[in-house]
Amino acid sequence: MKTLQNRILQLALFAILIAGAAVLYAAGSGKQLPVTSQTTVHTANDDGSYQTGNDVPSTRFSDNGDGTITDNMTGLMWLKSPDSTTRNWPAAITYCEGLDYASHTDWRLPTVSELETLTNYSQRAPATWLNGQGFTNVRLDYYWSSTTYAPSTADAWDVNMNNGGVHNPSKANNNCVWPVRSGQ
Prior knowledge:
The chain is α+β, with helices and mostly antiparallel strands.
């Protein structure tokens, strides 16, 4: 009996070890993500200490001259001026998928991860920073993502372009919409 208990314990520890390795592998070193630009160390071992991630290109955004801007870090193409109309989540998806703009018809609502790449955490307000980077009409407001909130599928993730916060409101709420496409 004791041998069986030891074997179960060994298998459980092995499973924990494998799960931990999988999490580390999935998280990686952060090198595929942009740096947050925090260079000040506020507390030992905070982001200012590590500064992991890819360096931001010298020209982060390129104006394509057709009402779109390409993010040179992610390769994503965004509308230069997001629409001012707020929509509920289903209407936001329909709007993006039906958009025919700048000779492209493959627009979609961004994932929460894609939308978060537009936040610059070294700046007080992402919208203000983005409007200074060539975008226009980016509002200090919440923008829908296409990502459903798993614990409650009646909700979806959004990103607040006033402070970079991520929230999970009801899909019935009206938020801003910013179409994206994968680019080239």
